[in-house]
Amino acid sequence: MSTTMKAMVLTGHGGLDRYEWHADWPRPEPGPGEVLIKVGACGLNNTDVNTRSGWYSKTVSAATTGDAYDQVDTADPTWGGAPLVFPRIQGADPVGKVVGLGAGADPALMGCRVLVDGWLRYHDQDHRFAVRGYFGSECDGGYAEYTVADHRGVIPVDSDLSDAELATFQCSSTTAEGMLSRARVDAGDTVLVPGASGGVGSALVQLARLRGARVIALASEAKHDALAALSPDRILPRGPADLRAALGDEKITVVADVVGGNYWPNLIDILERGGRYTCSGAIAGPMVNFDLRTFYLRDLTFTGSTVTAAHVLPDVARYIEAGQLQPMLAAVYPLRDLPAAQTAFVDKRHTGNIVVLP
Fold this sequence. Notes:
There is one protein chain. This protein is an alpha/beta fold and 358 residues long. The protein folds into two domains: 4-168 and 327-357, Quinone Oxidoreductase, Chain A, domain 1 (Alpha-Beta Complex); 173-304, Rossmann fold (3-Layer(aba) Sandwich), CATH 3.40.50.720. Helix content is 22%, strand content 27%. It contains ten helices and 17 strands. The chain has helices spanning 46-53, 163-166, 170-182, 199-210, 224-228, 243-247, 264-269, 292-297, 312-321, 338-347, and strands at residues 4-10, 19-26, 34-43, 93-101, 113-116, 119-121, 131-134, 146-150, 154-156, 190-193, 214-218, 234-236, 252-257, 271-279, 301-304, 329-334, 353-357. The strands form four sheets. Strands 3, 4, 5, 8, 9, 16 and 17 form a seven-stranded mixed sheet that branches. Strands 12-11-10-13-14-15 form a six-stranded parallel sheet. Helix 3 (170-182) crosses helix 4. The radius of gyration is 20 Å and the shape is globular. The protein starts with a strand and ends with a strand.
């Protein structure tokens, strides 16, 4: 096995020019309790874009754009509010084969095709939110030929899906499942999903339906045909001027949102009394107008959702193996063309997920 590998390396916060392609980057060695994974594919996600551009900084109030922001506080440009160490290989969504074991790693994993938990957990502590970081952020990730991961966060998956198809699931589906769990979604709910054509949005549609909920999707009309393959109960335009009229007699008990932005008050206004709003993103902008009267007079519950419980990725893997989750693979790019792939990802003209192959 070569001691070097191909990798896309992020050299600092900024634009796409901060990525550097290397054909001879040092291949990592698995440490104690770690496995070495030969990456077959790696999905793109908003966290990688937001971290690269510095969008998580509290000095930024604009929508996610993928561009570098002029005013970024270097002390808080990442999801956890701590500085990032460069150079860094991003990529939170690798799928690949275990080809090496560190001391103490589970030998049964050798040769398995695996998904990798995005969260760097304290596996010996039962603290749901206590994590050391995120894969591809606080440690090197999957935008390379090889990566290493804690063997306790590596989940074998037995599926006929391709590596590229499997790489559409980890971040999107675990994020969606975490949101639905926090909001306690069940068969008695009607769930409204803004941005339903994206990776997380399309996962929300599928996973809410698995729970027996009624699902209403919001998406641009050009994406309705592709979204219909996921069988939401209704599909509406992305941002109806009169959302209540567009919904008709629908009683929305849950809004599962990763969009935010100026349209946000419309989403809150249509929630039924006792309804729940769950959020894991703000693609259209993090700053919203919040009327406290709507919040307390309607007895609403708001939940933020970032760190997922340890069982969520294994649950998602079992859904995949049972054929209960459909991959939404929008496009595949060579890893060397990651800047072009990320440009397409940010443009949001696709439905589902974009993947790179090393």
